[in-house]
Design goal:
The chain is α+β, with helices and mostly antiparallel strands and 952 residues long. It is 59% helix and 7% strand. Among the domains are: 102 residues, Arc Repressor Mutant, subunit A (Orthogonal Bundle); 137 residues, 3-Layer(aba) Sandwich (Rossmann fold), CATH 3.40.50.300; 92 residues; 89 residues, Winged helix-like DNA-binding domain superfamily/Winged helix DNA-binding domain (Arc Repressor Mutant, subunit A), CATH 1.10.10; 101 residues, Serine Threonine Protein Phosphatase 5, Tetratricopeptide repeat, CATH 1.25.40; 121 residues. The termini are far apart.
């Protein structure tokens, strides 16, 4: 009795005996891997779902899809699947797995698998296809069960390659009766039937009828691949309909840039190769998941310029693949020129329309010889109306809605022109693609290569300026509609045109004023400054539009603060804007600009002016009764009181704001900041200073989470910076380190240079706190310099305290004292008053420990620090000051120890935090015969009792 075998590649599988051979020798697979192979090989070219495989291989067992993937990986690795272009099993995304290798059936005496000879008309299959295995398997499955399948897609997407590969995969099933007809060079539809008959190797007259073609085929079972149908789509559709009706054994697989439109047609839209959809960097490991990148790298290598796999190279390649929309022919074209121009210059040259004429391999069809030829072929098949519509729509960047498209196209010049119908035709012909954006109206987009070609045609047509004007007008009137990112990209295009020699400066100024809000929300301050600075002279001259100057002044004040620091220019913009807002009587704009001044005065350290501005915002809010104004005014007052050192008032106003904002939906973004986030961090710090370290962590965590959910990078940086400081105060180095690393990475990613410097400063402080002061001092010096350059006095006090401690730790006492004196001198006028007690405490520590005969001055510093901390309701500062007084001066007076004990008992939470552990240690020492040196166990940084306070 002969054994039934399934042959594929070098393998023979005997399902009944559960035996696998390779080149005639037994080949051992793990049991479950063998079961999977049998299940798939017995169902060749079918898509077997994951659920089916689980039921076949693990009947009655609780095995999940993760387990299936593990065993499938083992099987494919053992077979050498994917090595040297061999493919046996492919994953059909979202559906299952398919065994795609050509199979033969034999017995024990016959090792050679059955393979039907490929017909001479079928082009040879590629030795290696990149990223198309799943598509070919799906097309093959469709062509097996549907008598008419049309592969659609734009030029160069790979329709012919996929169809040929599917033909080879199906060749055995059709006993070699797979025939390929290339219509690319055929222009006369009357010759179509004869061309098909010639491919079937049948002699036929040039005027062969449809019935005559059916008679030639008779009852044969065959697969007819008809390639490049778009220019003869009507004629092909007629023949396809006739063969489906008259020849039940005839299967058709067509490729076309638009469907045939025949009953029973199954349209398969061939997707582009997989490429990264976002501009964020990817690792070399992740790059292997993208077939577009893989194709680019391979074609560059075969062109004589192999590329490395470093992060910078992968980023550039990913960017190019994204610009090329994953279209294989375009990727091959650009990659083939890397050896000529180098990778760094390719992206620049891609923006030049000359790349349209770059040639590809000579063996390519004429319509594929260059990027321009790819699109020229489709463009030439369009009607005049469709060509006009395509040219005008090329002005859009990204996706656009039908309303926008019709507005830019304008009224029809002829009664028989229907722009909406033309848009539908462009979609069918793969020159426009429908996309779904959220839950809004359907949108469309154009591939970048198509857009570049159409833009060149728009310039040649003479309609470019009028189209640009209509585009700018539309976005000036409908600027709050649609997706913000796409809208902003189109506003940029309109601004470039509006400020050009052919543009409309007033229209561009209106757009710049509106766009400034979006640019600030996205933290694009450099771009905001550029457009607003260009628009301001136009706005000043537009006497009938005072709102333009007002908006631009506010935006310039915010952008200047972030870009150039809190200088007089920023203040002048806010004050001029506020003057204009008062002239107009607009209370809402007055609130916004006064909020900007509050932020400005806060940052430069003029805290009394900041408190006045916050109070003014409160007065405006009580007039407007706008809920968002009321909430934000409370938060502004809370933040300002916290910085001034009024911790009780800070908690009151911050908590009042959160109470008013019960549902968390109040608008609180003014002058580039979300005041909700500022309130969270101010409340957290006020709670810590007031003696509630655990509640402080809760509020800090809420602030970080809220900022993360809202997504603005500046707000996230603010929440991370201040929260990290709280964890440093608590002595929780690990959590602080994680937050600091996140801050540094985020600020670097979004080029928020000040917070990047501040994050590095915190990193330096952490190094000092954990026993590595010298590199930490370097980082803290850099952060202090950045704050000074930005005129950001608010940050100087806390940075000065940490840096002075670190300098003292390495013996630089005089520089440390000078730094503290500088901070204390500036604090006399209000700046950073919240840190006043801590600066005094540290000065007392340094004078008491290191300065000869200055204990009396040290005592004055400690006394003033304690008094100020009590006045501020800052129990945390008071605890530190009393602890340091006893440690440094060795004062064991019962009154001081009693004060410390009383203070310690006031804390009902956070007893494991660093300051409270230190205070507990001091109380234990001075109430027992334990020597002071044992205090070193309370803090890993302190070698003696006198060094403990420097570890805070």
């Amino acid at each position: 009795m002969q054994r039934k075998a399934i042959a594929f590649g070098d393998f023979r599988l005997f399902p009944a005996e559960r035996l696998l051979e390779r080149s005639g020798e037994p080949f051992v697979l793990p049991s479950r891997a063998l079961d999977l192979l049998i299940a798939l090989a017995e169902r060749p070219q079918e898509v077997v779902s994951k659920r089916q495989l689980l039921e076949l291989v693990w009947p009655g067992s609780a095995v999940d899809e993760a387990g299936l993937r593990v065993h499938m990986t083992t099987l494919r690795r053992a077979l050498g699947d994917g090595v040297d272009g061999l493919r046996y099993i492919v994953n059909i995304h979202g559906r299952g797995y398919s065994f795609v290798a050509p199979l033969g059936q034999g017995d024990g005496a016959e090792n050679t698998p059955f393979r039907a000879p490929a017909p001479e008309t079928l082009p040879p299959a590629l030795n290696r296809m990149i990223g198309r295995d799943a598509a070919v398997a799906e097309i093959s499955a469709l062509a097996r069960t549907n008598r008419l399948v049309t592969i659609t897609g734009c030029g160069g997407i790979g329709k012919t390659t996929a169809a040929v590969a599917a033909g080879h995969a199906l060749n055995a099933e059709f006993d070699g009766a797979v025939h390929f007809v290339d219509l690319g060079m055929l222009s006369d539809p009357a010759l179509l039937t004869s061309a098909i008959a010639s491919t079937l190797e049948c002699a036929a007259p040039q005027d062969l009828s449809h019935n005559g073609l059916s008679a030639l085929i008779r009852d044969k079972r065959l697969l007819l691949i008809v390639d490049n149908c778009e220019h003869l789509v009507d004629a092909v559709a007629t023949i396809a309909a006739h063969l489906r009706r008259e020849n039940p054994g005839a299967f058709l697989l067509a490729t076309s840039r638009e469907p045939l439109g025949v009953d029973g047609e199954y349209v398969y839209s061939l997707p582009p190769l997989n490429f990264p959809k976002t501009e964020t960097g990817i690792s070399p490991e992740d790059a292997r998941c993208y077939s577009a990148i893989e194709l680019f790298m391979e074609r560059a290598a075969t062109g004589g310029h192999p590329l490395g796999s470093d992060d910078a190279t992968i980023f550039l390649v990913a960017e190019l693949c994204r610009k090329l929309d994953g279209v294989p022919a375009a990727i091959e074209l650009i990659a083939s020129h890397v050896s000529t121009f180098g990778l760094d210059h390719i992206a620049e040259l891609m923006n030049d329309l000359l790349t349209m004429e770059w040639a590809v391999r000579r063996s390519a069809p004429a319509r594929h010889r260059s990027l321009g030829a790819l699109i020229e072929w489709s463009y030439g098949l369009l009607s005049e109306c469709e060509q006009v519509v395509l040219r005008k729509l090329a002005i859009f960047v990204g996706h656009f809605e039908l309303e926008a498209a019709l507005a830019i196209i304008g009224p029809s010049r002829r009664s028989d022109w229907k722009p909406a119908n033309a848009i539908g035709a462009l979609v069918r012909k793969s020159l426009l693609y429908p996309v779904k954006v959220g839950t809004g109206a359907p949108c469309y987009r154009m591939l970048e290569a198509t857009r570049a070609y159409a833009l060149s045609r728009l310039q040649e047509s003479g309609d470019a300026n009028e189209t640009a004007r209509r585009h700018a007008i539309f976005f000036s009137q409908s600027r709050d509609k649609g997706d913000p990112t796409s809208t902003l990209a189109n506003i940029r295009v309109a601004l470039e045109w509006g400020f050009s020699d052919k543009g409309d400066p007033l229209l561009a100024t209106d757009l710049a004023a509106h766009a400034s809000r979006h640019l600030i929300e996205l933290s694009l301050f450099d771009e905001c400054y550029r457009w607003c600075h260009q628009a301001l002279p136009v706005a000043i001259k537009a006497k009938d539009r005072p709102d333009l100057e007002l908006t631009l002044r506010e935006a310039l004040g915010i952008a200047t603060s972030f870009m150039r620091g809190n200088n007089l220019e920023a203040r002048a913009e806010f004050e001029r804007g506020l003057y204009l807002a008062k002239q107009s009587g607009c209370l809402s704009r007055q609130f916004q600009l006064t909020a900007g001044l509050n932020l400005h005065f806060t940052r430069v350290g003029d805290l009394h002016a900041a408190l006045t501005a916050a109070s003014d915002c409160g007065a405006i809010a009580r007039t407007t009764l706008d809920p968002s104004h009321l909430v934000t005014a409370d938060w502004m007052l809370g933040v300002t009181h916290h910085i001034l050192g009024n911790q009780s008032s800070a908690r009151h106003f911050c908590e009042l704001g959160f109470h008013r904002d019960g549902d968390g939906n109040a608008h609180s973004r003014y002058a580039g900041y979300d005041h909700r986030v500022r309130a969270y961090v101010a409340l957290a710090r006020a709670l810590w200073l007031s003696g509630h370290p655990d509640q402080a962590v809760i509020r800090a965590s809420q602030g970080m989470e809220d900022a993360k959910n809202r997504g603005n990078p500046v707000d996230i940086c603010i929440s991370l910076f201040y929260s990290a400081k709280i964890y440093l105060w608590r002595g929780e180095w690990g959590t602080a380190g994680e937050i600091i690393e996140t801050l540094v990475a985020l600020a670097d990613k979004h080029s928020i240079w000040l917070y990047h410097s501040l994050g590095l400063g915190l990193k330096g402080e952490l190094l000092f706190r954990t026993g590595n002061p010298r590199p930490g001092i370097t980082l803290m010096h850099q952060a202090l310099a950045a704050s000074r350059a930005a005129h950001h006095v608010l940050f100087l006090a806390s940075q000065s305290v940490a840096l002075a401690e670190a300098l003292a730790a390495v013996g630089q006492i005089e520089p440390a004292l000078a730094l503290l004196d500088e901070g204390l001198e500036s604090s006399n006028d209000g700046p950073a008053c919240a840190h006043f007690p801590e600066m005094l405490r540290l000065k007392g520590v340094l004078l008491g420990q290191h300065a000869e005969n200055r204990q009396a001055e040290a005592l004055v510093c400690f006394s003033e620090a304690i008094h100020t901390a009590r006045h501020q309701c800052a129990a945390a500062w008071e605890l530190r000051a009393v602890t340091s007084l006893i440690e440094v001066l060795g004062d064991r007076r019962s009154s001081d120890l009693g004060d410390l004990a009383s203070l310690y008992r006031r804390f009902s939470e956070g007893l494991d935090t660093l300051d409270l552990r230190t205070a507990r240690g001091v109380l234990d020492i001075y109430s027992s015969p334990v020597t002071p040196t044992h205090l070193a166990t309370e803090c890993p940084l302190a070698g003696t009792a006198k060094k403990i306070q420097l570890s805070r």
